Amino acid sequence: MNYTAEYLADAKVLIDALDVSIIEKMVDEIATIRENQGRLFFIGVGGGAGHASHAVNDFRKIAGLECYTPTDNVSELTARINDDGWESAFVNWLKGSRLNSQDGVFVFSVGGGNEEKNISVNIVSSLKYAQEVGARIFGVVGRDGGYTAKVADACVIIPPIKPETVTPHTEAFQAVIWHLVVSHPKLQKFEMKWESVTNTNPPINTDFHGTSRTPKIQSKPSTIN
Asked: pLDDT of 31-44, one tens digit each?
């Protein structure tokens, strides 16, 4: 198979390998945070930072949950990095946000943080503080899950299929998982725009070969006057 076929075939394997019970537990825990009027703080770097910003939008707008991420405020983030250092930037932001036992911290990371190898120590420091104050911890991570998987209340690990595609598969499925969570019936509070619009297009059917086929709409023949 070529790279494209192999990549998509691996994605199918990953879907079947996901632990549904962990995802359901994550949904239940986040629903509890909302019921207790707690907040959810998303943290991540690189692609994880992009997910964090996107997730803040969706969890606020769709699930009606108060959410924040430090990477949405570039002025504060860079000031903390410049003055205090990269390793403490996230944890000091959480302290300034008065993280408490009613809140949750949600991590998007490929490795999950590893203090011994000095990788994503800013995430490790944040989770240690979350443990101190009794906040719930969530994550969608790759590889072995790192520190996030060790301490999380609910952590989905995207298992590595091939060493050369750990990062793209992990970051791709991070989006799949958190979109699943925010649209889960137990969490979704407000209707999404396109789901609220009547769909006049026919559904896409898939034949047994896996080929998508959209039925053609038969138009009435025009009448020439």
From this structure: 999 999 999 999 99
Amino acid at residue number 17: A
Write the DSSP assignment of 72-98 as a string of letters: G-HHHHHHHHHHH-HHHHHHHHHHHTT
In the chain, where the domains are located? 11-199
By DSSP bridging, strand 136-142 and strand 66-68 are unpaired
pTM above 0.85, yes or no: yes
User: Which is more confident, 89 or 202?
Assistant: 89
Nearest CA-CA partner of 48 in 131, 141, 125, 129: 141
Q: What fold does the segment set 11-199 form as a domain?
A: Rossmann fold (3.40.50)
The model's pLDDT over 143-169, given as tens digits with 9 standing for 90+, comes to: 999 999 999 999 999 999 999 999 999
Q: Over the range 93-127, which residues count as b (16 or more CB within 10 Å of their CB) and which as e?
A: bbeeeebeebbbbbbbbbbbbbeeeebbbbbbbbb
Pairing outcome for strands 136-142 and 104-109: parallel
